[in-house]
Amino acid sequence: MTDPQLLLANVLTLYTWGGISVLLFFLFAIARFFERKSSRRSYYPLFSLPIVLFMGSAIRYILVGDFVGDPWGDLGRVLGGLLVCGLGLYLLNLMTGGR
């Protein structure tokens, strides 16, 4: 890739994963609100872990310069995705009563 293409790819990488992190922050805020209002434990601080993992992966991809074949970036995305799925399902069951 030429330098303008690499710069654009890096900016889009940060923009995309930054947007995902903002959406995860809203999920964190919903879980915190639910825990405070219902007095049931939602483990809302754990929702910050996927944010850190996704942003760390994005920064890793920018430093490496390529999405393909970077095991640490891939591991961060996989772990972050698994955490989001698990915590999201837990929060859904907690809020809906398992219906």
Topology:
Layout: H1 3-38, H2 48-64, H3 71-96
Helix pairs in contact: 1-2, 1-3, 2-3
Ends apart, CA distance between termini? 51 Å
Q: Main beta sheet: strand number and arrangement?
A: none
Query: What structural category characterises the helix and strand content?
Result: mainly alpha
Q: How many E-type strands? A: 0
Mean pLDDT: 87
Radius of gyration, whole Å? 16 Å
Could you give the order of the helices and strands?
HHH
Number of helices: 3
Shape: elongated
Query: Strand percentage, roughly?
Result: under 5%
- Number of structural domains: 1
Low-confidence runs: none
Give helix % range.
over 70%
Brief sketch in words of this structure:
The chain has 99 residues and is an all-alpha fold.
Notes on the protein architecture:
The protein contains three helices and no strands. The protein has 99 residues and is an all-alpha fold. The protein has one domain (3-96). The longest helix has 36 residues, at 3-38. The chain is elongated, with a radius of gyration of 16 Å.
Supply database-style keywords.
99 residues; mainly alpha
